[in-house]
UniProtKB/TrEMBL annotation:
<dbReference type="InterPro" id="IPR026906">
    <property type="entry name" value="LRR_5"/>
</dbReference>
<dbReference type="InterPro" id="IPR032675">
    <property type="entry name" value="LRR_dom_sf"/>
</dbReference>
<protein>
    <recommendedName>
        <fullName>Leucine-rich repeat domain-containing protein</fullName>
    </recommendedName>
</protein>
<dbReference type="Pfam" id="PF13306">
    <property type="entry name" value="LRR_5"/>
</dbReference>
Length: 326
């Protein structure tokens, strides 16, 4: 259930109570649009207490579907905050998120929202070191908050980008700052590490620019491990939104040089679609293809193995396979 208050015919969500850390905030509560997430809504401590104290008697309760309810205090579930929050969905109606709304939610791993959030509070994801996935729905014709969200999330991040142009899978490498003292000058210098900050500048004002993102590949190639680089390459080739031919060729050259590692990464996904796409689109060398067959067999994935064996019979001439015990 959600704690909320009504302000000028709009709803502000103040917090959540329940037993499940996978939260979907409704678009409407009591027939009125949910437009705001209050400051410190999912945090804990004095900030949250002060926010609720200011709301006072205006605090109301609703169920998960947004229907107002009344319940005795003894029956109210525990608060979901900090380590209790795992995954959150914010509807398109949300226009504002207050300061430190997710402060110290270190178990939060995925955030889904639209790009039309107009007011993103400061320190929004402070302490949210566990976030790895951002699903963002781009609203055409409106200012996007994507750049602001990425600036708040400095860890290695996997972004599902949904838009009218198409959907894309993007990887943003980690970035971090280090303060270095310059003793003779008595100043502190701030040094940025990792190529993640460059990827977070792939914007024209607030609009994401795919060509700027793709042009940065030489940097990730020398600064990041194969796991991160291969994930970026797979994502761009699998979802080639606005992918220029010259960048496609660079990505494909990398893929063929690191085919085994990329295939292993694709197999780790819950959905077999990426792995099967890789086999169908780029598994034209029999040694590479047979390696994928071995991977699927070792991982005990009979449904994938069946598809691969059918494709193998169509693509390569029949012959005895050589198995290695090494």
């Amino acid at each position: 259930m959600f704690l909320y208050q009504i302000a000028n015919d709009h709803v502000r969500v103040l917090g959540c109570r329940g037993y499940d850390g996978f939260i979907r905030i409704p678009e409407k509560i009591g027939g009125q649009p949910v437009t705001e997430l209050a400051a410190y809504a999912f945090s804990d401590g004095w900030g949250k207490n002060e926010m609720l104290s200011l709301a006072g008697k205006e605090i109301r309760l609703c169920d998960e579907e947004g229907s107002p309810i009344e319940i005795e205090e003894k029956d109210i579930p525990p608060e979901i905050s900090c380590e209790g929050l795992k995954d959150i969905y914010l509807p398109e109606t949300i226009r504002k998120i207050g300061n430190y709304a997710f402060y110290n939610c270190y178990e939060l791993s995925r955030v889904e929202c639209s790009s039309s959030i107009f007011d993103v509070g400061s320190g929004l994801f402070t302490g949210c070191t566990g976030i790895r996935f951002l699903d963002i729905h781009i609203i055409d014709g409106e200012r996007s908050c994507m750049k602001e969200l990425l600036a708040e999330l400095r860890q290695e991040l996997y972004v599902n980008y949904f838009s009218g142009k198409g959907n894309a899978r993007l990887v943003f490498p980690e970035m971090f700052e280090e303060s270095v003292e310059h003793t003779p000058a008595k100043i502190i210098l701030r040094e940025m590490h990792g190529c993640g900050h460059m990827y977070r500048y792939s914007f024209d004002q607030t609009e994401f620019q795919f060509h700027k993102y793709d042009a940065l590949f030489p940097h990730i190639l020398v600064q990041e491990p194969e796991r991160v680089t291969a994930a970026l390459v797979l994502g761009r080739l699998y979802t080639p939104v606005e992918l220029l031919e010259k960048d496609r060729e660079v990505y494909e050259a990398y893929l063929m040089e690191h085919f085994k590692g990329a295939a292993r990464l694709a197999l780790e996904e819950k959905d077999p679609a990426l792995f099967l796409w890789l086999a169908g689109q780029y598994g034209h060398i029999q040694e590479d293809f047979d390696g994928m067959v071995d991977m699927a067999g070792s991982a005990d994935k009979p449904e994938i193995l069946s598809v691969l064996m059918n494709l193998r019979r169509q693509r390569f001439k029949a012959g005895k396979r050589k198995f290695s015990l090494i």
